[in-house]
Design goal:
This is Alpha/beta hydrolase. It contains seven helices and seven strands, in the order βααβαβαββαβααβ. The chain starts with a strand and ends with a strand.
Length: 217
């Protein structure tokens, strides 16, 4: 089947850091299972999955190399797969990058996992996009409260938005991997209009799993 959509995965990093990102860095490897899950679930439906490895580790205000890298990757996707819708999946700093570059014209959906969302993070980039913000309640690296406040601010801007808490989960997302995979797959299906969607990001689905998830928006 020819490609009909693209998923671009963005890994985490640090606030500061100019060291290169090798392929064995944990933050990068953490995105590999999501790439495999997306390919297994929707590759047969035409989803092409790409995993970006940043040049350097840090966010590094004001140059923002991770944002530059993501925009470069989106330009490359556009050149190679023109007019295809794009899903961004980012974890931690990668979640912030995904939310920041969602204003790219080909992006239709964003899945931000345990995102780093400072109080001044703009919400305009997610205008009219499908957005999922998911955070573990025991995250001590990025703030679940901050991502909730971001989601609250972005609710009126995004086309549709869900904010989900994964109860008892930490920043590494290793305690309930099936839950995180389900959230990513559902966002891909909803945001890219893929066939064979396995469940929806709706309140009813969250209620059927009260021991794992709580929805706030």
């Amino acid at each position: 089947m020819p490609p009909r959509a693209v998923a671009l995965l963005l890994h985490g990093g640090a606030e500061h850091g100019l060291d290169a990102v090798p392929p064995w860095r944990l933050a990068y490897l953490r995105m590999v299972p999501f790439a495999r899950a997306l390919g297994a679930a929707y590759g047969g439906h035409g989803l092409e999955v790409r995993l970006l490895r940043n040049r350097v580790r840090g966010w590094n205000e004001p140059t923002l190399p991770a944002v530059q890298d993501a925009r470069w990757a989106l330009r490359r996707v556009r050149a190679e797969r023109p007019s295809l819708p794009v899903l961004l999946v980012g974890h931690s700093m990668g979640g912030r990058v995904a939310l920041r570059v969602a204003d790219d014209p080909d992006v239709t959906a964003v899945c931000a996992l345990a995102p780093w969302t400072p109080e001044d993070e703009p919400v305009e980039p997610v205008r009219d996009r499908t957005v999922l913000v998911a955070h573990g309640t025991h995250d001590r690296v990025t703030s679940p409260k901050a991502s909730y406040r971001y989601a609250t601010r972005a609710e009126a801007t995004a086309g549709r938005l869900a904010r989900v808490e994964v109860a008892g989960e930490s920043h590494a997302m290793v305690r309930r991997p099936a839950v995180w995979n389900r959230l990513v797959l559902d966002t891909a299906a909803r945001g890219l209009d893929l066939p064979g969607r396995d469940g929806d990001l709706d309140h009813a689905w969250c209620e059927r799993n009260p021991h794992r998830l709580r929805t706030r928006l």
